[in-house]
Amino acid sequence: MDAATTHAGGTDKATLGDKVKAYVALTKPRIIELLLTTTLPVMFLAAGGVPPLWVALWTMVGGMLSAGSANAFNCILDADIDEVMRRTRRRPMPRHRVSTRNAYVFAITLAIISTLVLGFGANWLSAFLALGANAFYVFVYTMWLKRRTSQNIVWGGIAGCFPPLIGWTAITGSVSWAPILLFLVVFFWTPPHTWALAFRYREDYAAANVPMLPVVMDAVGVCRRILFYSVLTVLTTLLVWPVANTGWIYPAVAVIAGAVFLWEAWQLLQRAKAGKRDAELKAMRLFHWSNSYLALVFLAIAIDPIIF
User: Fold this and answer.
1) How far is CA 117 from the centre of its chain?
2) SS3 for 9?
3) How far, in Å, CA of 156 to CA of 151, rounded?
4) What is the pLDDT of residue 12?
5) Which segments in the chain show pLDDT lower than 50?
6) 174: which DSSP letter?
7) Residue 218, SS3 per DSSP
8) With left for phi above 0 and alpha for psi between -120 and 50, is residue 274 left, alpha or beta?
9) What DSSP letter does each residue of 234-259 carry, written as one string?
10) If you write DSSP's letter for every residue of 64-111 in order, what string do you get?
11) What is the Cα–Cα distance from 94 to 87, expressed in whole angstroms?
12) Which of 93, 116, 142, 232 is the most exposed place for a label (fewest CB within 10 A)?
């Protein structure tokens, strides 16, 4: 039943608008935005300029639906965790805004539609890459790694690295070194980004028995690993320059934005060494900048081939 069920066992009648909002919330729109940020710019790079409009449109729509499907599966499987954590307890599943059965039907339907949209709108290689990313996120990260290891986001984050490959193959129909390096950029970027956020919600993860690294390791150890992965991220962005043969805009942005990223990671480590914890650690500074950093790097990837 789609109507919300109250804790007293009654039924709270929901309007059509409420139901639509609940289903949209299952897809985690903010995460989808981030994934699309690493898809469209790569299409410009692959095309050497502005990509074909309809291919770009169908790729973005298909990617959005695929990511929405994976996120919906995640909401279903992590409902018990979400109910415990303050950050997630207002999601549709903990609030019983969508039944488990209907949520599964919704997630499966999105997966099927996204595969067809990408297959016919772009090509079947892109479609199967998206389907593979979806499966990896659900079966490997959500069902296996998340609750079992503090390295969950390192290897589970691979699912979020597929968009550069999908964007590239949508234009070229094949894989090459440039999108593989961009895949690695997102791979190395994911741990610093996620662990910085995990510092903010460390107590929530602990209460939910999710072994995120800040839960099982001291702050200094986590921050050292954040700095390590940040260095790898920036170095990999610089490798893209000669491999993709870009103009000067991309490396200039990669160097400047990367320097700020490394500075924030270094400062986070220094605050941890000084004994700062929780809010005083200011880990969210790195989290927010990491979003801006990735967006700037991929925006430069899109602008560079247009100008040069």
Assistant:
1) 21
2) coil
3) 8
4) 53
5) 1-11
6) S
7) coil
8) alpha
9) HHHHHHHHHHHT--SHHHHHHHHHHH
10) HHHHHHHHHHHHHHTHHHHHH-TTTTTSTTTTTSS-HHHHHHHHHHHH
11) 12
12) 116
